[in-house]
Amino acid sequence: LLGQILDHWFESEPLKATLATDAVIGAMNSPHTPGSGYVLLHHVMGELEGRRGAWGYVAGGMGALSQAIASSAASRGAHIFTEQPVCRVLLGTDGRAQGVVLQDGTEVRSRVVLSNVSPQLTFLELTPQEQLPEDFVRRIRQFDTRSPVTKINVAVDQLPSFLAAPNARDSRPLPHHGCSIHLNCESTHLLHQAYSEAARGHPSSRPIIELCIPSALDPGLAPPGCHVVSLFTQYTPYELAGGQPWDEQARNAYADTVFDCIEAYAPGFKASVIGRDILTPPDLERIFGLPGGNIFHGGMSLDQLYFARPAPSYSGYRSPVPGLYLCGSGAHPGGGVMGAAGRNAAQVALGDFRRL
Description:
Residues 34-160 form the Amine oxidase domain. The chain folds into 2 domains: 2-61 and 148-288, no CATH class; 84-135 and 294-353, no CATH class. Helices cover 33% and strands 15% of the residues. The protein is built from 11 helices and 12 strands.
């Protein structure tokens, strides 16, 4: 249990709770859930420019990272098709993957196919079911994809000024504006309470809020004097109690709760808001293909990690379909902006390709 680990090393409850948020981020569990300690480890095991456990912003926004990868691939001869959805994996008479079929009927032939979408989309929607073992399909259907995350993107006309560290007179960003700011996490009890509400189908009345202001470090993201604020919040259930829909009223009610919480820490925040984009778990699933809205393509629980990700005997990136590989967050070692699953899958595919 994460709570036991933090109690062993730290005395300060706010410090323990702040660290605990990285043990539950993107996960439908609490700091008291067995296995939650691994999620914290997953978030701090890496390094950035030689600094262990450090994270950084991508200049130009996260989309710039995708563009950099695409540019590098194109410079080496890759052809990239966008806005052309894949409808199925093309199989030969021998059952091997031979490419993909696009929604408009175009066939793109290849001797290997790597799928970066979730295991659910890859194997339950894009691959003919008769080509997959029944126990494998059952495992993929049972893969836990619950997500508590609602992402809110906000445009503001002034830099948030927090009571704990008020802005300077010139309104220039201070050091904390360039960091990840955690709100509503003064104690691990608050985190568990927020989880408990969502477990019963109700959005947290005092949500955990991870607030980032990327424009404080990258001014080009917003007009002069303005900023973009990224709110990673939880807990919000995929399905609301009583079968209530995540309609505009429900979205706005939850966002208002989040903004009221921020207002208590940074008076004037609500008045500075000039636009907001609210993405609940069903929205994240519909727009980005994240099953259940899960940023990891599936829970990072101990029964879905290592040799069991996404299924026992299929953690090595190969699938039951020869020539079809899984290279996204649903593969080992899971989600995160690190590229480990993609690199590992590429190495396996290259080795197999040389033998073809």
